[in-house]
Write a structure and sequence with these properties.
The structure is a single chain. The chain is mainly α and 276 residues long. The chain has 13 helices and no strands. The protein has helices at 3-14, 21-38, 42-48, 50-71, 83-98, 103-109, 111-139, 144-160, 162-168, 184-201, 209-230, 237-247, 250-259. The termini are far apart. The model has no long low-confidence stretch (mean pLDDT 92).
Length: 276
């Protein structure tokens, strides 16, 4: 593909409208995520607690906008003002949970359908990250960290509201904190936010904005499809292990174990008393 054609394709990708098809893909996958998080009892739970099930699904669908708005001092319920998006999210929730013979859930889990919807959701995620970074840049033009935080929350807000979302369903899991074990979408959103900040606020990236945006879209889609088809759930782990070993004491801890006295394990008491 020649550079002009690639640039034209990149421009077309940046102009994609998210409504309604990408919104549908996002809502269906969010409803599927809630259904899978419920586990084997999801079918019975949806019959017994439909309001709780609907509220938790809506929180997952609109989590990014609600959390980002709350941090920026804007109305948290503003993402719910779009009636069309609420109708799409509600329809997706109903299809996944309440269609006869569970046909909606089975179709959503069918691999070809899930691949298409997942690719569309990653395009949707990239759009959300860029919108979050751009919006934060207008409010705080020199605050790069705020731009990265808002872009990340827009990209994977559901990961940061999992504790509340489960609590709505009557499940208390205090260890389900995205800060403790960031998921792959969160890490990818952080990387994308950093790239967009560098593109918008610095001269370090000389490529046209459309090409940068298209590159991030390819980055998101590639890793998502790799996760579904090849089982590569977190491609960041090797880099994290290397970074941790070099900068967070992992290398020196290993050297100390080989050449120095063994360090006490977590929870192990050290006896300082001398033996007679």
């Amino acid at each position: 593909m020649d550079p002009e054609s690639f640039l034209e394709l990149s421009n077309q990708v940046t102009k994609l409208k998210m409504y309604p098809y990408f919104d549908i893909a996002h809502s269906v996958l969010c409803a599927l995520a809630v259904r899978e998080d419920l586990g084997p009892g999801g079918h019975a739970f949806s019959r017994k607690h439909p309001l709780s099930c609907w509220l938790s699904t809506m929180l997952v669908v609109f989590a990014g906008g609600m959390v980002a708005n709350g941090l920026l001092g804007e109305p948290m319920l503003a993402p719910l003002k779009n009636n069309q998006q609420i109708l799409i999210a509600t329809a997706a929730w109903y299809i996944v949970f309440y269609t006869p013979c569970d046909i909606g859930y089975k179709i959503g889990k069918f691999l070809p359908v899930k691949l298409v919807f997942s690719a569309m959701k990653e395009v949707y995620r990239c759009k959300k990250v860029y919108d979050g970074v751009s919006h934060a840049a207008k409010l705080y033009p020199a605050a790069y960290l705020i731009m990265i935080i808002i872009g990340t929350l827009k990209g994977n807000g559901a990961g940061f509201t999992k504790l509340v979302e489960r609590l709505i369903r009557g499940v208390w899991t205090p260890t389900a904190m995205e800060f403790m074990q960031p998921s792959c979408p969160t890490k990818a959103s952080i990387v994308a936010s950093v790239i967009f900040v560098l593109d918008l606020k610095t001269d370090l990236i000389s490529a046209p904005h459309a090409v940068v945006y298209f590159g991030v879209v390819i980055f998101f889609v590639y890793f998502k499809l790799s996760s579904l088809l090849l089982g590569i759930h977190d491609p960041f782990i090797p880099f994290e292990n290397l970074f941790s070993a070099v900068f967070f004491g992992g290398l020196w801890d290993s050297i100390s174990k080989v050449f120095g006295p063994s360090l006490p394990k977590e929870g192990e008491k050290v006896d300082n008393k001398k033996k007679d």
